[in-house]
Amino acid sequence: MGQVAPMSICAGFGMQRYTNGGQTMRAIQALLPLTGNLGKPGAGWVYANLATQIFGHLKDPLDFYPPEQPDGVVRVSVSTARLGKDMLAQQDPPLRVGWIERGNPAAQNPETPSVLAALRALDFLVVVDERLTDTAREAHLVLPSKSLFEQTDVIGAYWHAYLQIRQKVVEPPGEVRPETEIYRALGQRLGLRPEQLAECLPEAGDAGVEAWLEARLAPHGLSLGQLREGPVLAPGAEEIAFADLRFTTPSGKVELLSEEAVTRWGVAALPDFTPPVESQAAGGGKHPLQLLTPNTKNSIHSQFLPLQVIRQLLPGPTLEMGPEDAHLRGLKEGERVRVFNDRGSLELPLRISFGMRPGTVAACNGFGAEDGGSVNLLSLGRETDLGFGAGFHDNLVEVERA
């Protein structure tokens, strides 16, 4: 790497999903300043560009970090990684009512059994969704929501700095409402004044939504008309990251030795290696295989898996295993196997893959009860060392013939 310039590193969304993921990412990032690959065209770190987050008070991940002095902005207080256990632990006051939308925690959050226990402990659970997910099946009331084709919106992205319009193309079917109209109707029933609702919600109908979007684009010098002509770079987007070589650290410099890492996160000041909490290197025993639960390229988590066109490409979940581990267990391609640990088990068809390293197996996340269960029946809810992430891949299992 030191012989090639400029050089960029694209980390992807996998290595950080271990309990040592933060320090691992810090160690990889350290290669960039050490080799002079910062602040130059073609050099840097490709990971979650947040320039298009122009509508909120805070950009990720700052909404997870409460300030020393309250500033009136609500932050996340229940850990995504420990959702079930944290919900059950709320006692001041205890949780009684749940409202879930744009998510499927019963299948997608770690430790499915504790998530289900938390949902079932609620007195009343509402789920707003366009299909009957594992989470919606737990609800006392399901409100059908519009799809992404049924309301105009302005959208950003993780991987580029362009804002785009997503134009409404069809009407919602039957009694389906956009979420914004559900909120407005609920607010009226709760006795909120019209001016209060107008502050935070668009008027019903297409014209109301577009007026709302125009009002929020205007302070940034943008309009829906511009976006209809094509994607527009977000205000403040930088062609070259850190071109001025100034950084939001206490010293204003790249800090390979970070006291903040010690005081905020309790990790070593220099990025070092410690084994994932649940791994063979950390003393794993009777479950000798590391289970990876990546996304499939054919869906975003559980969103598109019910579509017929996707099922033609991906009929159902499988377990990928290397030939050495399969031979050791007397397993053959296509037979059903049981993947298990002390937390749960799944039965999946086996796929022999020469791309899997020995000691590692993989089953894509996104599948749920209708396909035999979520991979999170096997995971434990725990956070990563930095950033409040979820340690999905700290997950030891064994595999046997079903």
Can you walk me through this structure?
By secondary structure, the protein is an alpha/beta fold. The strands form 4 sheets. The chain has a 6-stranded mixed β-barrel. The chain has a 3-stranded parallel sheet with strand order 3-4-5, with no helix packed on it. The model has no long low-confidence stretch (mean pLDDT 92). The two termini are 46 Å apart. The longest helix has 12 residues, at 206-217. Among the domains are: 75-155 and 162-233, Rossmann fold, CATH 3.40.50; 280-401, Barwin-like endoglucanases. It is built from 12 helices and 14 strands. The radius of gyration is 23 Å and the shape is globular.
Please report the number of helical segments.
12
Tell me the CATH topology of one domain. Answer: Rossmann fold
Give the radius of gyration.
23 Å
Specify the structural class.
alpha/beta
**Number of DSSP-assigned strands:** 14
How widely separated are the two ends? 46 Å
Q: Give the overall silhouette.
A: globular
Largest sheet: 6 strands, mixed, barrel
Spatial order of strands in the largest sheet: 9-13-10-12-11-14
Whole-number average pLDDT? Answer: 92
Which descriptors would you attach to this protein?
Barwin-like endoglucanases; 402 residues; Rossmann fold; alpha/beta
Please provide a brief summary of the model.
Helix content is 22%, strand content 15%. It has 402 residues and is an alpha/beta fold.
Spell out the blueprint of helices and strands.
Blueprint: E1 8-10, H1 21-29, H2 31-34, E2 44-46, H3 83-89, E3 97-101, H4 105-108, H5 112-120, E4 124-129, E5 141-144, E6 153-155, E7 162-166, H6 179-189, H7 194-200, H8 206-217, H9 224-229, E8 232-233, H10 259-265, E9 289-292, H11 308-313, E10 319-321, H12 323-328, E11 336-341, E12 344-352, E13 360-362, E14 396-401
Parallel strand pairs: 1-2, 3-4, 4-5, 9-13, 10-12
Antiparallel strand pairs: 6-7, 7-8, 9-14, 10-13, 11-12, 11-14
